[in-house]
């Protein structure tokens, strides 16, 4: 990361990528991210590359890490598709159709294609910021690297989008619904995981 | 309490030993030479299956063989192998629904429906898969309580009982409609940092509220932890054993403990957890069964 390429630190977050995962970081100034689906490939020249085998949490990490770097304008989807889960198909569907009010990715053929930790604005931003290059099945590293080298573009004109983890709503618990006995007058409300004295 | 081909599961914590399910032929398993066709090193597989059985006999923790197949062709070969080397229950599993459906049909045709456990019925189960399960003779299944529309304990219970926002009918009723009588609950363990801990609280809540056996593949939380991936094997084994014991303390009746090679660390950890739990409830008039690790190992 240099000041020239991350003017005033505004082209990508610091640290970048914000979310940990099964990926490797290359040059954050590159315009390309590479998703190798179920294939463990080493791709040179990209901003970030790595596998994605799930159609829900895995996709969320890709979106969050991509939109936090304005330099990334292309996502190459390559490698072998993860059977049943179909994250490649689901990423394409997310980019094309977005999600419905329940969070289901519209048009995905994956097993449980839901987004639960991204706000709708993050998905809109992903759709605007990047173009997907669909090469599912491609495992030839040289060919993928040539694709990476061919794709260049000006950074997205905006601030890096930082996704904050959605917190589960805090629910007021009414103590007293004890359904487990721990002995010596101590009971537990199993749903709330509250341990209390028997009244 | 359910009885799966002689393996009892459920009951009050401290009563029965934990049931331990090791996975064979999983994705990337070194003994598999061709995942699509199901070609594998038979001698190595036999050794692994036998070892799980030996550890069961030694500790008193019953075991189930968790068979993962990439294709129906592979499953057919794995089932042919299983019938020769394993007499207990087995789990049918695949990421591919077509393979799961074909496996259920094959297990029924070959007379193993009473030993087969379908993994899993979930939000992903569509009408075609439901029909295939209903048309098979299987009556045991794991229900995956994953609810991406409402993370956390309440959401997981909702998907089982009512379907929540994601499904019109609860998965429990849906499973019964498919002919499933022996229902096992899996809280669906997410990666650490994405809500893995909720599986532990859900396990206690689901067992107390539904009275059904509960268990998970909590090893997935360990194996998907990027920080741990850079550590040595001893650290990873320690975390695997600790996660297993924590899940058992959180009311689990069974563990999908991951690669069958992990049997060497999981059986001792589970037996120890079983003994501690049994001792903890002795004065609550909960008597461990004769074959419990409390009676065998201490």
How would you describe what is shown here?
The complex is a heterodimer of chains A (199) and B (298). Chain A is an alpha/beta fold and 199 residues long. Helices cover 21% and strands 17% of the residues of chain A. In chain A, a hairpin with a 2-residue loop joins strand 6 and strand 7. Chain B has a single domain (23-296), classed as TIM Barrel (Alpha-Beta Barrel). In chain B, 44% of the residues lie in helices and 17% in strands. An eight-stranded parallel beta sheet of chain B has the order 10-9-8-7-6-3-12-11. Chain B has a two-stranded antiparallel sheet with strand order 1-2. In chain B, strands 4-5 form a two-stranded antiparallel ribbon. Chain B is globular. The chains are: A alpha/beta (199), B alpha/beta (298). At the A-B interface, strand 6 of A face helix 5 and helix 7 of B.
Topology:
The complex is a heterodimer of chains A (199) and B (298).
Chain A: E1 23-25, E2 32-35, E3 48-50, H1 57-67, E4 74-79, H2 87-97, H3 120-129, E5 131-136, H4 141-150, E6 180-183, E7 186-189, E8 194-197
Parallel strand pairs in A: 2-3, 2-4, 4-5
Antiparallel strand pairs in A: 1-3, 6-7, 7-8
Helix pairs in contact in A: 1-3
Chain B: E1 2-4, E2 7-9, E3 19-24, E4 32-34, E5 39-40, H1 42-59, E6 63-68, H2 72-85, E7 90-93, H3 97-109, E8 116-121, H4 127-135, E9 140-144, H5 153-161, H6 171-177, E10 182-186, H7 198-210, E11 215-216, H8 219-223, H9 226-229, H10 233-249, E12 254-259, H11 263-280, H12 293-296
Parallel strand pairs in B: 3-6, 3-12, 6-7, 7-8, 8-9, 9-10, 11-12
Antiparallel strand pairs in B: 1-2, 4-5
């Amino acid at each position: 990361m240099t000041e020239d390429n991350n003017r005033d630190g505004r082209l990508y977050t610091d640290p970048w990528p914000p979310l940990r995962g099964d990926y490797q970081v290359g040059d954050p100034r590159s315009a390309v991210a590479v998703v190798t689906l179920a294939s463990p490939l080493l791709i040179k020249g990209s901003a970030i590359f790595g596998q994605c085998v799930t159609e829900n949490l895995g996709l969320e990490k890709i979106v969050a890490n991509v939109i936090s770097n304005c330099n990334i304008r292309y996502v190459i989807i390559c490698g072998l598709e993860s059977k049943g889960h179909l994250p490649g198909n689901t990423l394409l569907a997310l980019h094309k159709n977005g999600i419905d009010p329940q969070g289901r990715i519209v048009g995905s053929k994956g097993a449980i294609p839901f987004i639960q930790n991204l706000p709708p604005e993050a998905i809109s931003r992903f759709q605007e910021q990047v173009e997907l290059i669909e090469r599912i099945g491609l495992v030839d590293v040289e060919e993928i690297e040539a694709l990476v080298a061919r794709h260049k573009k000006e950074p997205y004109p905006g601030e890096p989008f930082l996704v904050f983890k959605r917190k589960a709503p805090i629910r007021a618990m009414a103590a007293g619904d004890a359904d487990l006995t721990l002995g010596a007058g101590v009971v537990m409300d199993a749903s709330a995981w509250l341990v209390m004295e028997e009244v | 309490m359910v009885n799966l081909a002689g393996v009892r599961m459920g009951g009050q914590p401290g009563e029965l030993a934990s049931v331990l399910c090791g996975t064979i032929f999983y994705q990337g398993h070194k003994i598999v030479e061709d995942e699509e066709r199901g070609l594998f090193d038979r001698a190595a597989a036999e050794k692994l299956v036998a070892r799980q059985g030996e550890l069961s006999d030694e500790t008193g923790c019953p075991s189930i063989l968790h068979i993962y197949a990439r294709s129906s062709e592979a499953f057919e070969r794995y089932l042919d192998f299983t019938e020769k080397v394993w007499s207990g229950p087995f789990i049918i599993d695949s990421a591919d629904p077509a393979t799961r459906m074909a496996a259920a049909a094959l297990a029924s045709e070959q007379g193993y429906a009473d030993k087969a456990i379908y993994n899993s019925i979930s939000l992903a189960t569509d009408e075609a898969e439901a029909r295939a399960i209903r048309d098979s003779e299987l009556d045991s299944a794991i229900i995956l309580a994953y609810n991406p529309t409402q993370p956390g304990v309440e959401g997981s219970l909702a998907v089982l009982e009512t379907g929540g926002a994601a499904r019109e009918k609860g998965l429990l009723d849906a499973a019964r409609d498919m002919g499933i009588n022996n229902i096992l609950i899996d809280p669906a363990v997410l990666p650490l940092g994405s809500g893995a801990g909720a599986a532990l609280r859900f396990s206690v809540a689901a067992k107390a509220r539904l009275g059904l056996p509960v268990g998970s593949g909590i090893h997935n939380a360990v194996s998907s932890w990027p920080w741990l991936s850079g550590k040595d094997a001893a650290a990873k084994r320690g975390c695997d054993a600790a996660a297993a014991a924590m899940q058992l303390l959180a009311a689990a009746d069974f563990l999908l403990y991951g690669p069958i090679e992990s049997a060497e660390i999981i059986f001792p950890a589970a037996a120890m957890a079983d003994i501690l739990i049994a001792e903890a409830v002795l004065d609550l008039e909960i008597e461990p069964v004769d074959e419990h690790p409390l009676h065998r190992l201490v």
